[in-house]
Design brief:
The complex is a heterodimer of chains A (460) and B (211).
Chain A: H1 2-60, H2 79-87, E1 95-100, E2 105-108, H3 110-119, E3 129-132, E4 138-145, E5 151-158, H4 164-207, H5 225-289, H6 295-323, H7 332-347, E6 350-355, H8 363-382, E7 388-396, E8 399-406, H9 417-423, H10 428-438, E9 442-447, E10 453-459
Parallel strand pairs in A: 6-7
Antiparallel strand pairs in A: 1-2, 1-5, 3-4, 4-5, 7-8, 8-10, 9-10
Helix pairs in contact in A: 1-4, 5-6, 7-8, 8-10, 9-10
Chain B: E1 3-8, H1 12-23, E2 28-34, H2 37-47, E3 51-54, H3 63-73, E4 78-83, H4 88-97, E5 101-104, H5 109-120, E6 125-126, H6 147-157, H7 162-169, H8 173-187, H9 192-201, H10 207-210
Parallel strand pairs in B: 1-2, 1-3, 3-4, 4-5, 5-6
Helix pairs in contact in B: 6-8, 6-9, 7-8, 8-9
């Protein structure tokens, strides 16, 4: 329904644009026809009047045709005549001839006489008519008898001699109008071809486009520059949308995979630790209860069971600390002290900690630094086989910096930086980077094979 | 007649507990104790125990892989899986690899001993915790399974779909479903895997037929 209305709207718009030039062209054509008719009738009445006047003059005045000499025989085609006539200073055009009742030429233009004789009967009496002569020249002619009937006066005007400017102005106007109409019709056609069609095409394409999945074609139908630009802009926007969707997707994928990895890790920790401990506990209790067990044996089994229970508690506590260290809320210094002591005890390495005093960090930054330090120290031991690790936190005008330096065997940064490492399945560094980015900081990793590794996290 | 055993478990506390269980039985003779898959496999090759108690998950080689290696080399060693996992799919893949028994680590000393004795005799032992809740009447299905039902079960165990079983036996898919439902009912199983395990346990089908 909406589409229908839109289509109709475009139709009426096109029609309303087309209508004026069409009207102008029609009017110009009508004007052309009617002005021709008008000129014809003016010329006729002129020729009739001229001829009648001369015929009358002959009767009223002198019977001598020679007396008519003062009427200028106009036989030359002179362009200036038009201007003279127009300005009223010249003479009217016209050819005259006088014959007697036997059609013997007495006086007048030889050209007209020749026309009269060759046309003969076709010459009308009393009213004007158009004729072509042998040379194809176009005339309006009229014949009047003198009052006494002894002469015939023939008058004619050659169309070539019709006052030029008048004639041309009369024709020029409709021609100009027609041309203007044609021009605007062509412009409308162009507008339709290069604006309306490409616009509709683009609209149709964009309206059904699946943003984030598809990109419109870069090349559409021939269109004006602005529309080409508009199309390219849409292409760019669609590309951006596509990129954004793919980034979101890869983020989601990452999140899911991180979640799964964490779950696997936790599940494994529980399986290998507490689950085994409790299993062992059950075994000990059963052994203590089993038949033929002396009180001493039973006591020793129960002692063992208690020890195992303690181990289990310790492991569960360790797991809790690993998942979310409760001492994190004591502040960065305490948290890092706890962490480094635990890690150095766990891995048998020496960790030197130096935290600047009086630092008051937001919780999020504390957590980020803590996790980065945890990951960095663990990596130093696991991948770098470091024996000594230095963890420093200090502040300067650029912000607060965490630095973890080790004496391990270092590594070569992949070409793609942390993203490249991540692509190879090493998430550690990119996780650190993401944590710092989340609190507005950045990560710098300096490492060369054989020269240890330095991890710097700076938060402004 | 004493039974020579090896025990492979990476967790020291449970391993110690299991050793204490085994020490209570006079006819059990533990000739090797291992904390990882590699050394366990070396021990098996060297000592050729009658029964190998293997944890499914261990550093190095896992229990299922060792079981497969034993089967591939044709060693006269009976693998018995000893694990914390009670997933039926684990049981199946262990059995497919060649294990003759599956016992949970949380079982009693008596259960463990019985399992070892059964597999040492060439029998098949499946922990009741992983293969059904049916304790009573162990060894005999509550109701006899028909020959046709047995055929359907064997094909289902091989991983064929209802449609494939139907076209194999020239019966309708609906009939296959009816047979399966009847099998579940008779064995007291809730799904296909469990019905397979129970059929094994009750001796309705042989391990070699099923896998």
């Amino acid at each position: 329904m909406i589409k229908m209305r839109r289509k109709r709207h475009a139709f009426f718009l096109a029609l309303s644009i087309y209508l004026p030039p069409f009207c102008i062209m029609s009017l110009a054509a009508m004007d052309l026809i009617y002005s021709q008719v008008g000129v014809k009738s003016v010329v006729r009445s002129y020729v009739e009047n001229l001829t009648e006047y001369v015929a009358h003059t002959i009767d009223m005045g002198s019977s001598e045709p020679g007396m008519l000499m003062h009427i200028p025989p106009y036989a030359n085609h002179d362009w200036r005549l038009g201007i003279y006539n127009y300005l009223g200073i010249g003479r009217m055009p016209g050819l005259l001839a006088i014959v007697d009742e036997n059609n013997i030429p007495i006086f007048g233009s030889s050209k007209l006489m020749a026309l009269y004789i060759s046309s003969g009967e076709k010459f009308p009496m009393g009213s004007a008519k158009e004729l072509y002569d042998e040379n194809g020249e176009f005339f309006t002619v009229a014949v009047y008898p003198s009052y006494l009937g002894d002469y015939l006066v023939i008058g004619a005007v050659s169309w070539r001699d019709i006052p030029g400017f008048t004639k041309r102005a009369v024709y020029l106007w409709p021609i100009l109008m027609g041309s203007a109409g044609l021009w605007s019709a062509m412009s409308v056609w162009n507008l339709w071809q290069r604006v309306i069609i490409p616009l509709r095409n683009l609209e149709a394409e964009v309206s059904v486009l699946k943003w984030g999945e598809e990109i419109p074609a870069e090349e559409g139908p021939i269109a004006i520059y602005e529309l080409r630009r508009l199309r390219l802009t849409f292409v760019k926007v669609a590309r951006d949308a596509l990129k954004r969707v793919s980034i979101i997707r890869s983020c989601m994928r990452d999140m899911v995979s991180v979640q799964e990895t964490e779950r696997t890790k936790i599940s494994r920790e529980i399986h290998d630790g507490p689950l085994q401990d409790v299993t062992a506990l059950i075994q000990r209790i059963r052994l203590a209860r089993s038949e033929g067990c002396s009180p001493d044996e039973m006591n020793s089994e129960l002692d063992l069971a208690e020890k195992i229970a303690h181990v289990s508690v310790k492991e569960l506590r360790g797991l809790c600390d690993f998942l979310n260290p409760p001492w994190l809320e004591l502040g960065l210094e305490q948290a890092l002290t706890e962490l480094t002591e635990r890690l150095s005890a766990q891995y048998g390495v020496r960790v030197f900690l130096d935290v600047e005093e009086g630092l008051d960090l937001p919780e999020a930054v504390t957590l980020a630094f803590f996790r980065v330090a945890q990951e960095a120290v663990t990596n130093s031991v696991r991948h770098g086989e470091a024996k000594h690790i230095w963890v420093d936190v200090k502040s300067d005008e650029n912000g607060i910096e965490l630095c973890v330096q080790d004496d391990g065997h270092g590594f070569n940064m992949a070409d793609g930086g942390t993203a490249g490492l991540r692509a190879e399945g090493h998430r550690g560094l990119s996780n650190m980077e993401e944590r710092l980015t989340l609190v507005g900081g950045r990560l710098k990793v300096i490492s060369y094979p054989g020269e240890g590794t330095c991890i710097r996290g700076l938060v402004p | 007649m004493s039974i020579n055993l090896i025990l492979a478990d990476d967790h020291p506390l449970t391993r110690a507990g299991l050793m204490a269980y085994l020490a209570k039985e006079e006819d059990f003779n533990v000739i090797g104790e291992y904390a990882d898959g590699e050394s366990a496999w070396n021990g098996i090759k060297e000592l050729i125990p009658q029964v190998a108690l293997l944890d499914i998950r261990m550093p190095g080689l896992d229990g299922v892989t060792i079981t497969r290696k034993i089967k591939d080399l044709g060693l006269p060693v009976v693998p018995l899986m000893l694990t914390s996992y009670d997933a039926q799919q684990y049981v199946l893949s262990s059995l497919r690899a060649g294990a003759r028994g599956y016992v949970l680590k949380s079982s009693t000393a008596e259960t463990l001993s019985r399992a070892i004795r059964i597999v040492a005799r060439g029998g098949l032992y499946l922990d009741s915790e992983v293969a059904s809740t049916v304790e009573a009447g162990e060894g005999m299905p509550p109701e006899q399974i028909s020959a046709r039902e047995r055929e359907v079960l064997l094909l289902a165990a091989k991983g064929l779909s209802g449609k494939e079983i139907a076209s194999n036996l020239f019966i309708s898919e609906r009939t296959v479903q009816t047979h399966l439902a009847s099998i579940y009912d008779k064995l007291g199983a809730r799904n296909k895997t469990e019905s397979m395990l129970l059929a094994l346990k009750f001796g309705v089908v042989m391990l070699e037929e099923l896998l």
